[in-house]
Design a protein that fits this description.
By secondary structure, the protein is of the alpha+beta class. It contains 14 helices and 23 strands. The chain folds into 3 domains: 233 residues, 3-Layer(aba) Sandwich (Rossmann fold), CATH 3.40.50; 66 residues, no CATH class; 66 residues, Roll (Archaeosine Trna-guanine Transglycosylase, Chain: A, domain 4), CATH 2.30.130.60. The radius of gyration is 23 Å and the shape is globular. The two termini are 32 Å apart. It binds S-adenosylmethionine. Keywords: Cytoplasm, Methyltransferase, RNA-binding, S-adenosyl-L-methionine, Transferase.
Length: 444
C-alpha cells in the first residue's frame, strides 16, 4: 500500500521512534470484530451457541475477534440480530459513554449504526435513543440495523446536527459524536480512503467537527456526558477540536478514560485515548469523554393516549403481548411509542418508536421490526426451526415451506424463529407456511 508522502511525514513527527512499528502494522491483516446483542442474548449464552471461534476484545464486555475465514454475516443468527459486525477499535466510544437505563441519548452521526446499536443495549429497552445522521441514504442502513437489533425505544432521524441545536437546548443526558473525519486510522482496513485523504487538505474536517461538537454540547443537559470520537490520527481533528469546545464551554471538563494495555493518551491531553494499529489489535481511533457541570434530572414521561385503532389492528394485537406504551397511527403506519419526545416542524424523522406494521386497505401487515423486537413468549403462535434445519435459509430467502412435521394445527399469523430467536412473520395454514419475510431483508 502506497501511503501519501505528506501523511508519512506527519506520522513520523507524531510517532517518532515508533513510526517504523506503525508502518510494519500494514504487513499484518486487519482484525474482524463481532459484538453480541445483549438485548437478545447474554454474552455467556451466546458463547455457548456461537458457531465461530471467538477471542475477547479487551476494551469491551461484549465484543470478540473472529477469524477472517468465518462468514458471520451469512449465518441465520445474524438475521436474528444476535450480533453486529464492527471493527474492534470502533467498539470503544460507545463502551466509554456512561449510559444509564432511563437516559435520553443522542447519537449525532449515527449511520450505519455500529455505536447506536451498542447504546441501545446499554439502555436495555428503557429511556430513549435518538439516532441521527445527516445522510438520508446512510440512514436506511441505520434504520435496518436498529430494527434488526430489536430496539423498541429508538427514533431514527436525518438532520444536520447544527439544525437540531436551536430546538433541543440542554435536552439529552448522554451524547455520542462519532464525527466525520479524514479516516487515517482506517487506511489498513479501507485503502480507498487514501484517495479522499489526498483530495481534502487538513483544513477540511476541523471546522465541521467543531460545529458538530459545539452544537452537541449545547444540547447536553447539565451533569450529562458526551463522547467525541474519530478514526483518524490528526491532532487538528482530535485534540484541537476538544480544546476548541473546552474554550467555548467553561462548564465542560475532560474525564480520564481508563487505558488498557497498548492504549495511548491524547497528545498533551492525557485524559483522552489514542488507539494505534501497532499497539493494539485493531485500527486507529481517538476517543474523548467530557462532562458538563451540574446535576442531571430525569423528567417523568407523559405518554399521550393511544389512537383509535381499526378492528384489523386490534385483532392482530390480541396475538401480541406489548410492553407499556402508546399506539399511534401515522398515515398507514402503526407505531408503538414509549416516550414523549417531540419533533419540531421540518425535522426529518424516519422512525419514531417501534413500527408495529402497516395498514393495507382493511388488513394489517405486521412488520419485520416487530418480529425482531419480540421474544417468542410475547407472541401467541410460534414456529421454531432448529439451527440445523435447512428450511431456515429457505425461509430467509422468502420461499413457501411445508412445515407439517412441526405444526399441522396453527393457522394465521405466526412468529418464525430459529433456536427460539425470532426471524420474521409467516401465515400458517394446514402445515403450509406462507412466507412474510420482508423482501429487502432476504438472504443472498
Ligand atoms: C464516522 S461516520 C459514523 C459511523 C457511526 N457512528 C457508526 O458507528 O456506525 C460519520 C457520520 O457523520 C455523518 N455526518 C456528517 N456531517 C454531519 C452533520 N452535520 N450532522 C449529522 N451527521 C453528520 C455522516 O453522514 C456519517 O455517516
Amino acid at each position: 500500500m502506497e501511503l501519501p508522502v505528506k501523511f508519512k511525514e506527519q506520522m513520523k513527527e507524531l510517532l517518532q521512534e515508533e513510526y517504523e512499528d506503525y508502518l510494519n502494522s500494514f504487513d499484518h491483516d486487519r482484525y474482524y470484530g463481532l459484538r453480541v446483542n445483549t438485548l437478545k442474548i447474554s454474552v455467556e449464552e451466546f458463547l455457548k451457541i456461537s458457531p465461530f471461534k471467538l477471542e475477547p476484545i479487551p476494551w469491551t464486555n461484549d465484543g470478540f475477534y473472529y477469524s477472517s475465514e468465518d462468514k458471520p454475516s451469512k449465518h441465520p443468527y445474524y438475521y436474528a440480530g444476535l450480533y453486529y459486525l464492527q471493527e474492534p477499535s470502533a467498539m470503544l466510544p460507545a463502551q466509554v459513554l456512561p449510559v444509564d437505563e432511563n437516559d435520553i441519548v443522542l447519537d449525532t452521526c449515527a449511520a450505519p449504526g455500529g455505536k447506536s446499536t451498542k447504546l441501545a443495549t446499554k439502555l436495555n429497552h428503557n429511556g430513549l435513543l435518538i439516532s441521527n445522521d445527516i445522510s438520508s441514504s446512510r440512514c436506511q442502513g441505520l434504520l435496518k440495523n436498529i430494527e434488526l437489533f430489536g430496539c423498541d425505544n429508538a427514533w431514527v432521524t436525518s438532520e444536520d446536527l447544527t439544525n437540531m441545536e436551536q430546538h433541543y437546548p440542554e435536552t439529552f443526558d448522554k451524547i455520542l459524536v462519532d464525527a466525520p473525519c479524514s479516516g487515517e486510522g482506517m487506511f489498513r482496513k479501507e485503502p480507498d480512503l487514501i484517495k479522499s485523504w489526498i483530495e481534502k487538505d487538513d483544513t477540511f474536517y476541523p471546522p465541521i467537527q467543531k460545529n458538530i461538537l459545539n452544537a452537541a454540547v449545547s444540547m447536553l443537559k447539565p451533569g450529562g456526558s458526551i463522547v467525541y470520537s474519530t478514526c483518524t490520527f490528526s491532532i487538528h481533528e482530535n485534540e484541537e477540536v476538544i480544546q476548541d469546545v473546552l474554550d467555548k464551554h467553561p462548564d465542560l471538563h475532560l474525564v480520564p478514560i481508563n487505558k488498557i494495555d497498548g492504549m495511548m493518551p491524547g497528545v498533551n491531553m492525557k485524559e483522552c485515548v489514542r488507539l494505534y494499529p501497532h499497539k493494539i489489535k485493531g485500527e486507529g481511533h481517538f476517543v474523548a469523554l467530557l462532562v458538563k457541570d451540574g446535576e442531571t434530572k430525569h423528567k417523568k414521561i407523559r405518554l399521550e393516549p393511544s389512537d383509535r385503532l381499526d378492528d384489523c389492528v386490534t385483532d392482530f394485537l390480541r396475538l401480541v403481548k406489548l410492553n407499556k406504551g402508546a399506539i399511534k397511527i401515522k398515515k398507514d403506519k402503526v407505531i408503538w411509542l414509549n416516550s414523549d419526545f417531540q419533533a419540531y416542524k421540518g425535522y426529518r424523522v424516519l422512525r419514531s418508536g417501534l413500527l408495529l406494521g402497516q395498514l393495507k386497505g382493511k388488513h394489517f401487515e405486521p412488520s419485520q421490526s416487530l418480529a425482531l423486537a419480540l421474544c417468542p413468549e410475547q407472541f401467541k403462535n410460534v414456529l421454531n426451526f432448529s439451527i440445523e434445519d435447512e428450511r431456515v435459509i429457505k425461509y430467509l430467502k422468502g420461499e413457501t415451506l411445508d412445515v407439517k412435521d412441526l405444526d399441522k394445527k396453527t393457522s394465521g399469523w405466526t412468529l418464525v424463529c430459529v433456536n427460539n430467536f425470532p426471524l420474521g412473520f409467516a401465515k400458517l395454514s394446514k402445515g403450509s407456511l406462507k412466507n412474510k419475510y420482508a423482501k429487502g431483508w432476504r438472504y443472498q
